[in-house]
Amino acid sequence: MRRSLVMGNWKMNGTRSSAESLAKGIIAGLGEDVADIAICVPYVFLPDIGNVVQNSRLALGAQNVADKPSGAFTGEISAAMLMEFGCKYALVGHSERRTYYGDTDQSVAARFSQAQEQGIIPVLCIGETLEQRKLEQTFDVITTQLDAVVNLAGIAAFNNAVIAYEPVWAIGTGLTATDDQAQEAHLFIRNYLAAKDQAVAEKIQILYGGSAKPDNAKGLFAMPDIDGGLIGGASLDAESFLKIYHSV
């Protein structure tokens, strides 16, 4: 039985004090241990939030990781650096990184591998745009994005990874995939992996990452191949985030 994971992505939001307050509020409301829970915070907040979450069930994650181990790469943060601050997870390939900052399938695969080399669990974000969905290219896009990682790191790398399916058309738009639409994509991802390694497919957590909110999370999480969520805006409010967590 796979354990669910609810992960918050704070994106570029908050101040030092508000970040600490939000993390403390989440910890205070955790209650029953129903699933894994984590927050991916801006780099500059990692030291402070790392101290807040220490000795709690709330895990720490970064929003990106460099595709190189070190060197003359101004503005990048290496996996080794993230490990020093207690990061358990790192997002790789988030649609905003792919759309606005030029991440390619190949650079995302390199980021994925860099995270794993330092013992960080990569959260591989994949998904299609609205135009690609209208052209019925969803499964082709997902396959290409997964192929890039498998070709570089091998299928066994997914033994220690998380996948987040994020339909790009449902991020920050107010649109959300229906339960059945989300399940269809998640099942496709799991079947893709199963064709290469059944054990990997059965073990891996696949999260839904397209505008999940307290009022729709329960239906999404009830789907057999949806193992939790990568939560954006709703993770910036402790009460909303905790409602999603407890809806598991």
UniProtKB/TrEMBL annotation:
It comes from the Bacteria. Pathway: Carbohydrate degradation; glycolysis; D-glyceraldehyde 3-phosphate from glycerone phosphate: step 1/1; Carbohydrate metabolism; erythritol degradation; Carbohydrate biosynthesis; gluconeogenesis. It is an enzyme of class 5 (isomerase). Substrate binds at residues 9-11, 172, 211, 232-233. InterPro entries: Aldolase_TIM, TIM_sf, TrioseP_Isoase_bac/euk, Triosephosphate_isomerase, Triosephosphate_isomerase_AS. It catalyses: D-glyceraldehyde 3-phosphate = dihydroxyacetone phosphate. Coiled coil: none annotated. One of its GO terms (cellular component) is cytosol. It is found in: Cytoplasm. It holds the Pfam family TIM. Keywords: Cytoplasm, Gluconeogenesis, Glycolysis, Isomerase. One of its GO terms (biological process) is glyceraldehyde-3-phosphate biosynthetic process. The active site is at residues 94, 166. One of its GO terms (molecular function) is triose-phosphate isomerase activity. Its EC number is 5.3.1.1. NCBIfam families: tim. Homodimer. Involved in the gluconeogenesis. Catalyzes stereospecifically the conversion of dihydroxyacetone phosphate (DHAP) to D-glyceraldehyde-3-phosphate (G3P). Belongs to the triosephosphate isomerase family. This is Triosephosphate isomerase. It comes from Methyloglobulus morosus KoM1. The gene is tpiA.
